[in-house]
């Protein structure tokens, strides 16, 4: 066996070894990437949203807007209080309701309801909304996010489970109406 | 003494490190670089080491669980002996580290250190700035309080605006559909494993290049950097007028690092740890979340950008900024190093500093946010009420009850979202006031549906009294002529 052949044979073995490791690496990358993408995969497969009760209709007097809270449908034992989500419920006329996300449509800060001036105001960058959730002033580009709702056995149910963001507003996904000024 | 030397020799025979360490320590540096201007890099490294030590100490107690993190911070503050001090050191160490990294960056920029052959040193430095800011942001999340919770909401809202993959980016960032335990866990992994790993790697490469290429020489006006001749010139500079790094230059580094550590400790003792603020319970909505100091400028910017420009500027702006920093050594890799001959460089630094400083200052006062409790906690000063009619006083009551005060100030009390109303009657006539109240506009909500005609009349009557005693309120002269022609006395 010549030296030249020996070198080329070892070089070929090195290449073979690297090829083998490349294949193993690629094979391992698949489950790793899948593991990392699990929040996205889960969202596409099962979705995060489901119908949740906000309680009896008697809590929401006609013509008023009240704060309601619910437990997020997808929670872990160690989520603590972060699994409790707030929203604003407006009883328009006992027939029609509006359920607004607590998150400002600008950057998600918690909006507060002022019944005296019938406005929602955001403490972060000064967004304001009218009582029907439409944009009144400030940096938001649109009105408040709205959850789809239905009434069953005297209880108000909303379809929720995911934090609404400007890129993925709940109402738009659920096919609900979005109000924009 | 002999025993120590023997033990040292025993180790060195096996490790063989004493020669390279001595060579590194005594390597020659240009004489003028043994300067107080050259101490910021080592000070940033000192801060980083303090962060590693205090971070490990905090990890002994801290629980990265959404349900328990806040309680474990309370335990650190109150239940563990001197836990508050370790938290304060880590928090102030973080602020000092960001500040010193920025100062270091300004110094090497003004001294032209990014030019040939140190382009890659600069680029790795830019990456170090980004990972340092990454540490600051992820660390702010680990202080899992109300600010952290809603800060994550802001981050998710920004991420969601990325075209096409926005919603996925949010799910990946939060680790699920909402801000919860999975979110904190992944920020813990980032803050404790991923980003520090990058930081250590980048620091290693950065330092290696400083050693291999030599420290940037003191820039002299007129000494031009040219690729063909620079290396030779630098070699002569270090060999002919060079001094050994240890001890000629290093004593300033050591003294300054010590001074910085003392300053951090003094701040930690005097000001104490940062937070935590309220519990991360999203059903507690009486909160006004604010980011930490080094992100305040961004917070201010987000309230001033026009809505239509916000998404593109938010998404493209940072990318352009980073690209400019990365491209700098390739665009200006040769030429003058001295800041005395680089006016545009100096002006750029001044412009950026004034811009960031102004935005930070504004963010500390948040004039764009309504003062959420001004209507109930800040009464109208009595000079605006004395000697007013019953109708006007009723208008003042409407002003408070309808939360006008949240956005409009009187005598510097109340919100600054809208204009101050101390002398609004000079600017707007009665009809214009009515129109503005009812229809809104110019960033003011319309109050037409929320005020009865009687309330509007009273409110406008009150607003009409808001003018200095020696100046008359604005009036529509043509209207007076048209409507009251008979009353106007003929000339």
If you had to describe this structure to a student in words, what would you say it looks like?
The complex is a heterodimer of chains A (181) and B (491). Chain A is 26% helix and 28% strand. With 181 residues, chain A is of the alpha+beta class. In chain A, the strands form 3 sheets. A 4-stranded antiparallel beta sheet of chain A has the order 2-3-4-9. In chain A, strands 5-6-7-8 form a 4-stranded antiparallel beta sheet, with no helix packed on it. In chain A, strands 1-11-10 form a 3-stranded antiparallel beta sheet, with no helix packed on it. In chain A, a hairpin with a 6-residue loop joins strand 6 (119-121) and strand 7. The model of chain A is unreliable at 173-181 (pLDDT under 50). Chain B is mainly alpha-helical and 491 residues long. Chain B has 21 helices and 4 strands. A two-stranded antiparallel ribbon of chain B has the order 1-3. In chain B, helix 4 packs across helix 5 (83-110) and helix 5 (83-110) runs antiparallel to helix 6 (119-142). Chain B is elongated. The mean pLDDT of chain B is 92. The interface between A and B is large, with 59 and 70 residues.
Write the layout of secondary structure elements.
The complex is a heterodimer of chains A (181) and B (491).
Chain A: H1 3-36, H2 38-45, E1 50-56, E2 65-71, E3 84-91, E4 97-101, E5 112-114, E6 119-121, E7 128-130, E8 135-137, E9 146-147, E10 149-152, E11 155-160, H3 170-174
Antiparallel strand pairs in A: 1-11, 2-3, 3-4, 4-9, 5-6, 6-7, 7-8, 10-11
Chain B: H1 2-15, H2 18-25, E1 28-30, H3 40-59, H4 69-79, H5 83-110, H6 119-142, H7 146-159, H8 166-174, H9 181-213, E2 224-225, H10 230-241, E3 242-244, H11 245-271, H12 296-304, H13 307-331, E4 335-336, H14 343-365, H15 374-377, H16 390-401, H17 404-407, H18 424-427, H19 430-439, H20 453-464, H21 477-483
Antiparallel strand pairs in B: 1-3, 2-4
Helix pairs in contact in B: 3-5, 3-11, 4-5, 5-6, 5-11, 6-9, 6-13, 7-8, 12-14, 16-20, 19-20
